[in-house]
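Narrative summary of target 7.
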Amino acid sequence: MRAVQVVSLDGPGAVRVAETGDPRPAPGQVLVDVHAAGVTYPDVLLTRGQYQLRPEPPFVPGSEVAGTVRSAPGDSGLAPGDRVAAFPGFGGFAERVAADPSVVFPLPERLSFTAGAGVPMNYLTVHFALARRGRLRAGETVLVHGAAGGVGTAAVQLARALGARVIAVVSTGAKAEVARRAGAHETVLAEGFRQSVAELTGGRGVDVVLDPVGGDRFTDSLRSLAPEGRLLVVGFTGGEIPTVKVNRLLLNNIEVVGVGWGAFWLPRPEYLREQWEEILPHLESGALDPLVGSVHPLEGAADALRELDGRGAAGKVVLRVRED
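Modeled conformation, tokenized:
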């Protein structure tokens, strides 16, 4: 089969398409024919050896896919031909991938494989962030940074589906349009967002900030929180890991909340199934509908990774392995 391999830890350019042997499912695993694979920021970090997991090259990246079941154990609830999304962790940038049944989920007919490949990482991460760590309630206001990216558009859609008012923070007018397509009620530019948020909320601030960016906007995010507000730390695509003076937390009884989705579910693999069951009605209704920004062939994996690395993505970046 064809697969994308990271051949050295020198960044997105150090990937090659190679002919490799088919994966051999371990006992109890599902084999999936991959139609599309989602490209994530951890994939970029993996190409430099900067992720918390550091496999030795050559290896096949790709943590999320959509496709059809090729073979499955009899007790898995899956059968050949089933349309699925999966979160194998590694190996997704290939024509076939093996995964445990606990990370293989039914994909609604209304979703294409291209869109389905954008669900597992982003939507389960923001579900964990907003529903569990952020304790989001209907009627609250959520501020989403990086709102035109894969995580950002997923957060906008899920927050809205959960009954929240959504303010999207973006860097350009074009990205504001993407955030509005995702369902944001209002959009503001990153430059001067604190003042814009104050105006939109009558000076009260927001109940939840979801921040996958970090960097120099962190302090103004804290200042944008309403009393008892929660700032959800999802990641640091901006490069800089910010710090906080904890006396700021006392002033309005606010919280800085870590969102380590992987650290939470790895010892609790059954949690992923619980999450999928909670978001499935929203996937079926169309309230959650991944915004696909760019689609690359398998041979274009380096370009897809560079797009994320340069923070140029608007919507989800996907590799198309087979036609839908």
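The two ends are 18 Å apart (CA to CA).
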